[in-house]
Amino acid sequence: MKPAMIRALVAAALCTAVVAADEKPPSAEMVLRELKAGNDHHVIKRYQHPHQSAARQRELAAGQAPHAIVLSCADSRVTPEIILDQGLGDLFDIRVAGNVASDTELASIEYAASHLHTPVVVIMGHQKCGAVTAAAESGEAAGHLPSLLGLIRPAIERARSRPGDLIDNAVHINVENVVRQIRTSTPVLAPLVDRGALRVVGAVYSLDTGKVEWLPESAPKAIARLEALRQSVQCVRSH
Ligand SMILES: [Zn+2]
After folding, report:
1. Does the domain spanning 26-238 belong to CATH 3.30.950.10?
2. Alpha-helical runs (H) found in 45-102
C-alpha cells in the first residue's frame, strides 16, 4: 500500500472517531456556538424554532440527551428556549429566582452532568433582576424569601465597593459567584470540570436588547489541553 493511501486511511479513521465523539455528546465548544447563534436569532427575531415537531416529541419519549444545562432566573421574561432559540430536549432547565444554587439546584446539575453527560452549564443572570434588587434593599422579607436573598447578599456586598450601577454590578458578580461555586462543587462537579468533561459559563441577559452577554471564562488547564488536541485532529482531517 502506498504511503499516501495509508495516510489517507489514518486520517479517515481519526475523522470517524471525532465525528462519533461529537455526536454523543457534542463538544462544549460546539454547544456554545449553537447557543450563541440561537441568541442571535432571538435578537433579530428570526427564529428557527428547532426541535419542536411531533416527531421530535415522540423521539424524546425514549430518552433525553440535552446539550446544555441552563440555571437561569425564574423571571418570566428570561425563558431559555426562546432567548437561545432551542427546542424540546435541547436544554436541561433549572429556574430559580436570582439563579442561585442551593443543594437542590446543585443536585439537578449533578444529575444532568453525570448521568446525561451534558457538557455545558450556563448560569444566566439578567438585567433588572427583582431578586437581586430585593437582596440589595434593607426591608424585611416575608416567608421563605430571606433564605433565598441570603444567597445573593454576598454579591451585593462586593458590588457596593465598585463604581457604577449597584444592581447591574451585583447581577454580574452573582453570576460569577455561582459559576465559581459550581466549578468547585465536590464531590461530583469539580472533578468533571477538572478533566474537561464539564464547562461552566456565565451569562447575563439584556431585557432591553434581547442579547446575552457571555462572561469571560478563565479556562481550566484541562479544557485548554482538550481544545489543543481537538485542533490537532482537525488539522489531520483537513490534510
Ligand atoms: Zn431575576
Report:
1. no
2. 54-60, 80-83
